[in-house]
TrEMBL record:
Keywords: Kinase, Receptor, Repeat, Transferase. Coiled coil: none annotated. It comes from the Eukaryota. One of its GO terms (molecular function) is kinase activity. PPR repeats lie at residues 255-289. It comes from Iris pallida (Sweet iris). The keyword Protein transport does not apply. Gene3D superfamilies: Tetratricopeptide repeat domain. Belongs to the PPR family. P subfamily. It holds the Pfam family PPR. InterPro entries: PPR5-like, PPR_rpt, TPR-like_helical_dom_sf. This is LRR receptor-like serine/threonine-protein kinase.
Length: 508
């Protein structure tokens, strides 16, 4: 049975996914429980910042025998030490700080590894610094403080976070071969490091090695890593095959990370029905959604345009999203902009207040220009156009340019249009013939016929040859205001360029 299970993962790239299995495939004697997922960015934009640490195990017995008051005290102390270490400018000064703050005493006092693993976790924002601290820790082995598998596991995770998979593999080898450590958490950490950096085959290869190891068994964390590996690659069929293995095992069961990983994969693949069904299944299970689950669902509803469910979910995590998840605020704004919601401007403006100046995104700026143009709100549209010019944001699609033109045209703002065209030309925005045709029409409506004729010279600069429509605009404008001679001249140019003449071109 175990061999059949192994072959499923080994051949995942070359064979179709196996969607049915006879009996439970594997029986594991040991399970490690993944700590409850903290809120993160939901799979997108810094959405991977905590993934590698969340997918690796922490010792389950770290704090079992430590009183709560003492546990809080040591964690507070570790927090202060981490802040001091992270404030160091030169990595070479870390050893001096570590000795000055008596980290050795903490390591001796908590032989379970609590203090040091906690310290490495607090330094994840600077993985290179954390790895240097780990190197310092390894030198203490000669002083009677042997290394623990959990400490190596954390270091392997940090190496993956630093995108140094060679170092991660080297640390794994050192733990397994040099120190003879036998722990599933080491395999899980290396798998996560490979997964995090996109080494799909290597990640599966480590899983195969784990299956062959008589001293270790895969845990639910192991399978969560595989789920994430396939989910991130949008290999949904393979992910679902792994999920079947979990569901058909006597010793494995889905946990919070399992559900969140599967939902994230369906969101990534834009499989909205499967996303929804997984969430409903989770709600009826013993594992209840957390804030991270709701953030994932919020993203999915926004991308799918399900505004009703998006708004319901937003109410559950409003404070978290508004204060900490700016990327989801942008996604919600995008959903409203693409919708026909009657109050979309009101909704957009309410959300836009939560986006700081430093979180400027060119694509969102352009989207705001378009939505205000569609609503005919020229003042607001001009504001975002000015912002785009100031920040050197370029519009390169004709669709956005036509929306802007339409906005000015609906309000009859010919001078604003003329000014916009000049600035767009200077800024290198997409120049299209519609810009100039719209100017000509508006000049013609206001009897500014000389300026209308001057648009031909502007078109020539950008090598935009007049079309039949160009001459028709001029002809009708001259005809409307009784400028018979100029209208006849336009007819002549139309014949000259092979466009014939309009049906109403007969002049008495």
């Amino acid at each position: 049975m175990a061999r059949r299970h192994l072959l499923l993962l080994r051949n995942y790239l070359t064979s179709p996914p196996i969607l049915s299995f006879p009996k439970p495939l594997v029986h594991h004697r040991h399970l490690c429980h993944l700590r409850r997922h903290l809120c993160s960015a939901g799979g997108v934009p810094d959405h991977l910042r905590d993934r590698i640490l969340l997918l690796t195990e922490k010792p389950s017995d770290f704090s079992a025998s430590i009183p709560d008051a003492e546990l809080r005290e040591v964690r507070d102390r570790i927090s202060l030490i981490a802040v001091e270490l992270l404030s160091v400018d030169d990595v070479g000064d870390l050893a001096g700080v570590l000795e000055a703050v008596s980290v050795v005493e903490l390591i001796r006092r908590y032989g379970s590894g609590l203090a040091f693993v906690e310290l490495l976790s607090r330094m994840k924002s600077k993985p290179q610094f954390a790895l240097e601290v780990f190197n310092w820790r390894r030198k203490l082995v000669d002083e009677g403080m042997p290394m623990l598998a959990e400490e190596y596991s954390k270091a392997i995770s940090l190496a993956g976070r630093a995108k140094n998979v060679d170092l991660a593999a080297s640390l794994f080898y050192d733990a397994r071969v040099t120190h003879g450590m036998r722990s599933t958490c080491l395999y899980n950490a290396l798998m996560a490091a490979y997964m995090y950096n996109g080494y799909t085959r290597k990640c599966v290869s480590v899983f195969e090695d784990l299956k062959k190891d008589p001293d270790c068994n895969p845990t639910i964390v192991t399978y969560n890593i595989l789920l994430s590996l396939f989910g991130r690659s949008m290999l949904v069929n393979h992910m679902e095959s792994v999920l079947q293995i979990i569901d058909q095992s006597d010793d494995l069961s889905r946990n919070l990370k399992t559900y969140n990983t599967v939902i994230a994969a369906y969101v990534t693949a834009w499989m909205w029905d499967q996303m929804e069904s997984t969430f409903r299944q989770m709600e009826t299970s013993p594992i209840q959604p957390d804030s991270h689950t709701h953030l994932l669902m919020l993203r999915g509803y926004a991308h799918s345009g399900n505004l009703e469910r998006m708004e319901e979910t937003y109410e559950l995590v409003r404070e978290l999203v508004s204060n900490h998840e700016v990327h989801l605020v942008r996604v919600m704004i995008c959903a409203y902009c693409k919708s026909s919601h009657p109050d979309r401007i009101k909704k957009v403006e309410a959300l836009a207040k939560f986006i700081p100046e430093e979180e400027y995104r060119p694509w969102l700026n352009v989207l705001m220009i378009r939505v205000y143009a569609q609503e005919g709100l020229i003042e607001s549209m001009d504001h975002f156009i000015s912002q785009a010019f100031t920040r050197d944001t370029m519009v390169t699609t004709s669709g956005i340019m036509r929306s802007i033109i339409s906005g000015y045209f609906q309000c009859g703002a010919v001078d604003r249009l003329a000014m916009f065209v000049r600035k767009a030309e200077q800024a290198g925005w997409r120049i299209c013939r519609s810009l100039y045709h719209c100017k000509m029409v508006m000049y013609g409506r206001h009897n500014r016929l000389e300026e209308m004729h001057g648009v031909l010279d502007e078109m020539e600069v950008y090598k935009l040859n007049p079309t039949k429509k160009t001459y028709l605009i001029m002809f009708k404008a001259y005809l409307k205001f009784g400028r018979r001679f100029e209208a006849e001249s336009v007819l002549g140019m139309m014949w000259k360029h092979g466009f014939g003449s309009p049906e109403d071109a007969f002049i008495v």
